[in-house]
């Protein structure tokens, strides 16, 4: 039987795991970064293929090279999707969040560590007989539909192998007292990011996660109540 005493600690960790964007420049020891990657590796991986790779950046020179890319991505986000507060979030709260995003942008070169999770499926091994059974199982309409959304399906399949590990990493960071937040803004300039970091062209990147010691306190997250988001048995 699981230790009941562990449950409140886990839930308390999750309930105070806010995106912490203001970081101190103090370095994070390699052994702690290794713990974060270990936590990520423990995450579920579809088919247990374990095709993930993690780029960890701590070198100040490399971080300075990435800072202009980060600024371009953040500016693009704030001018479009991030221009307006999400529905249900008041303008004052959103203003504070934007201020934190701008602080992180302006101090990006001082980020102690970046973690970039990557993943690439192996080439598919599908035989003609398998395709026949696939089409019979789905039916003609669904098979045609899958053909149209195959690119999206593949991206989601890879993401489903990556993001459980990323969540483990974020939980581990919170448990160690480290600030971390997940972003995908780098995808605006993914080609440039991959070139700067020497990531192979065929390897897909799924996030850029700044990590460091927080310039503030962890606190309760603000989320919609469960009663508003649950649809039991059907929508």
From TrEMBL:
Pfam families: Nitroreductase. Residues 18-213 form the Nitroreductase domain. PANTHER family: NAD(P)H NITROREDUCTASE RV3131-RELATED (PTHR23026:SF123), NADPH NITROREDUCTASE (PTHR23026). This is Nitroreductase family protein. It comes from Streptomyces tunisiensis.
